[in-house]
Design brief:
The chain is 24% helix and 39% strand. The strands form two sheets. It has a five-stranded antiparallel sheet. Strands 1-2 form a two-stranded antiparallel ribbon. The protein is of the alpha+beta class. It has one domain. The two termini are 25 Å apart.
């Protein structure tokens, strides 16, 4: 039998799972750093942005905002950093909730950096999915 060729509609797949673009924006003003991590989701079509405000290494404020793709396209400073799966994004979101509580009173630079690394997919060799 002929095996139908797969078309992915210009989407990237990782081990058969659909991946979504992840963007980052970091800017510093008046001694505080505002770091934003955003994911572009297909259904519903929107951008989910996780915003961290960091002062002297301590996470002072954390919140999530949702925008339409059109609103997001008008924002400056965002750059594509990777693509990730929804399961990795869920791990990121859960870890973020834990870190936001843990880091209210102490410096958490390495924890925040490690959390972002969760989003990067390790290229698997064929047959290891």
């Amino acid at each position: 039998e002929d095996v139908p060729s797969q078309t992915f509609d210009n989407k990237d797949y990782f081990c058969g799972k659909e991946t979504f673009p992840v963007y980052e924006s970091i800017f510093t003003e008046e001694g505080e750093t505002i770091r934003k991590i955003a994911i572009e989701i297909e259904k519903p079509p929107q951008i989910e942005i996780h915003v961290w405000t960091i002062k002297k290494g301590i996470l002072h404020h954390f919140y999530v905002e949702k925008l339409s793709k059109r609103e997001f396209e008008g924002l400056p400073y965002f750059k594509l950093i990777t693509r990730t799966t929804l399961s990795q994004w869920k791990i990121f979101s859960e870890g973020e909730a834990q870190i936001s509580q843990m880091c209210e009173s102490r410096v958490c630079r390495t924890e925040l950096e490690d959390l972002v690394k969760v989003l990067y997919l390790e290229k698997s060799e064929k047959g290891h999915c």
